[in-house]
User: Fold these one by one.
Assistant:
Number 1:
Amino acid sequence: MTRAVLHVDMDAFYSSVEQRDDAALAGKPVIVGWTGGRGVVAAASYEVRKFGVRSAMPLRTALRLCPHAICIRPRMQRYQEVSRQVFSVFHEVTPLVEGLSLDEAFLDVTASQELFGDAVAIARRIKSRIRELTGLTASVGVAANKLVAKIASDLSKPDGLTVVPRDQVLEVLDSLSVRRLPGLGRKTGEKVEAAGIHTFAELRGAPDWVLRPLFGRYTQRIRERAAGIDDRPVLPDLEEKSLSAEETFADDISAPAALQAELADIAELACERLRKRQLMTGCIGVKIRRQDFTTFSRQRAVAPPTHDSRTIARVSAELLDRWLAAHPGAKLRLLGIVLTDLSPACQLGLFEAAPPYTTRLDATLDEARARFGSRALRRGNTIK
């Protein structure tokens, strides 16, 4: 049976959810992003993209390009709800679903073709079901591997369906810009173009003496990717390697007390995410970024593994204290907490309906936030 892989990518997901939930936003230039001096664009509607606004762009830049854009703060809980609906559609056709984010996934539908028809029919079914359940559109790429499917899904957005047959891969890829190669960052893309390489065909055919200074030991792999060669399997239910939460400040902060208050708030968010996934951490780390963008990390192993908010907050505070003592007066633009060495939380008891908790306080906080929002109930040391 011919291998068939789909890459499904929701169209302008966050902004599309906002436009669907509020009819007054339909057809309007919408930016979903964090406000403040260093806010960035999390999502841009297609109406605002016409002005050059893109995801990850500083919000100030976006508003210069489109001053009449409507800015909305992200509602992550809402996007997660819709994402669960979307992923339920994926699992209707195959158990081989590799989620990349809330709005994007690879699906291996090779074995599903006997039941649901060929890969194109399955792609159409998925698009129709997503629209039926959520009122949103998705773009789908259909190919024999993950790489080509991902490239294909981006070729006819929004609401696209692009099929790349196995014997037409080079015909489709050769004329594309090298910037469409997944994993080729902006800076590397600029260097590749500066070397006179602009298309997949030119990248595939470039001599080693041109490519090696750009890609080093990965030269052959890049050449293969430019030819659409990719044998990676679709890996369902990937184990999480780490979990993190961070905050970029509107203004640099140097006061230790203010930094510790910010860190306590970040710890609460990280712990809430940890418990939602029914995980525990065996290693707690802090991420520290100075005013000049220099980034530091400090970490400490803990035993036994924990998801207790007080423990994680205490260890994080101690790590930050030690760093601040060695860098007195440092101004920070970002703080974060990174939890690694993750393991499943203790097995649920027969009558337990929620994750096990180290303290009843954590359970109460999580329950209140689930019902009334992430800011409904907070610890005193997180109030700034």
Note: The chain has three domains: 7-143, 174-226, 242-382.
Number 2:
Amino acid sequence: MEQSEFERKAKVWRNLAYETGLAYGADPDEAEDVAQDTLLKLWALHDELERYQSVIGLTRVIARNLTIDLRRNQRTIRLDELPCNLPAFDKFADSDLISREEENALNQRLLQLPPRQHQVLVMRQVEHRSYKEIAALLGIEVSSAKVLLSRARKWILNQCIMQNGLFTDVR
């Protein structure tokens, strides 16, 4: 598409992109930005626009996606944009502490499992062994290994849920 033809049709596309931006929740200034960005993207494709069935549809899609991206970016808080008077914090310090506490609590529960269930659980979850390998090592049937693992998982789940007071029992 030649530049003169693009300029002639761009007025219609710009209005369409502006309206689409408004329809997807942009304020008038943001919709204007969306319209301009849409025209930039269309110009980048100006040599290929003939291959599209509907440039109007393409314009709407581009404008919609740009508006959605704009909304997503507005929800993201950037640390460099925060006021300087906010106290500094390490967002990972608390999560590391919580993770260690949760890991310790889980290890305590694992030690309370019957020995055979504990053994099967470790073989399957930690050592990544197949049911067939577990059964062979323990001298039991594959179905028994599956049942032992299922019971161990269910018991741990029940313990975690009861500790948090969500339910009294999972069946």
Note: The chain is about 75% helix and 0% strand.
Number 3:
Amino acid sequence: MSAQRILVFPDCGPRIGGGHVMRCLTLTRALIARGATCAFAATPETQAVLQTFAAPDIDVLPVEGALEDAIVTVANWAESFDADWVLLDHYFLNAAQEGALREGRRLAAVDDLANRPRAADLIMDSAYGRTDADYRPWLPENATILTGPAYAPVRPEFAARREAALAHRREGGHLRHVLISLGLTDVDGITLMVVQALRPLLDGLIVDVVVGSAAASLQPLCRAAKTDANLRLHVDTHDMAGLMAAADIAIGAGGSSTWERATLGLPTVSVLLAENQRPMARAMADDGLILTADVGDPRFEANLTGVVARLIGDPALRRQLSERSAAACDGLGADRFADALLNPAP
């Protein structure tokens, strides 16, 4: 078989963040390592993320306008790129629009909703507790379904640090480093809110704060870091694996970075920022993998402070969260996804 050509179309924007683009970058990295050729059909918001994080050899094909117009553009790009597959990571396409992109080729989709008909030949949902049965009613009869954290799209640098990070956490010891990372787009300035709420509680600890260059919180956090030697600001960092490996606990967004932290067994308070994050996070909390604080709760700041204080003060709880989260995800999901897409079962 000749090398497969894959056109990727992720959603991105101020409200939805850059997580769809980041997990597609992880998947394309695994696909390219297996000989595939990949390109992104990219809106201006997606282009901004790719400019910062994508390898220079990935083609970026511009997409403009409203979604209906964008679908036409993506279909045209798929034709001119001679795509064998279109890979979608997008919540807002219906089955007819997906069918238009599937015309003359195959369609793969990354999802975490399982809530509507899809035209996909292959679908992947790495949500905790997700099963094939959740998707079977929504898909063509012969579609391939990949579900659960075994397929979580985690970058290889996390798996490379896994053994050492888990050994470090088993040793225990004093808590020294806290990581706060709530998404590149920093929806509604949530990062500053969290840092301000927790700063008195974290006095004396090293606090690594990660934001994107367009984050609403960036300027006030820059000012705070100038007067606080223990507050270290990381903008558009390329070393999340290093920061997570060094951290003793994390306050993190409830999206795809969940599985990066789990791969490294990082005890986490997951801040729930969107409705689609809540079911998985609650299931993980019920099974003792994470703690949670919901930004939609009127008492969010008080709840967050209370749960972080509990985590700081309870080494046994930190060990439990580390062990259970690490057991759920080994960080090799992108490889499994790439193998399934490029070598489909007969």
Note: The chain has a mean pLDDT of 95.
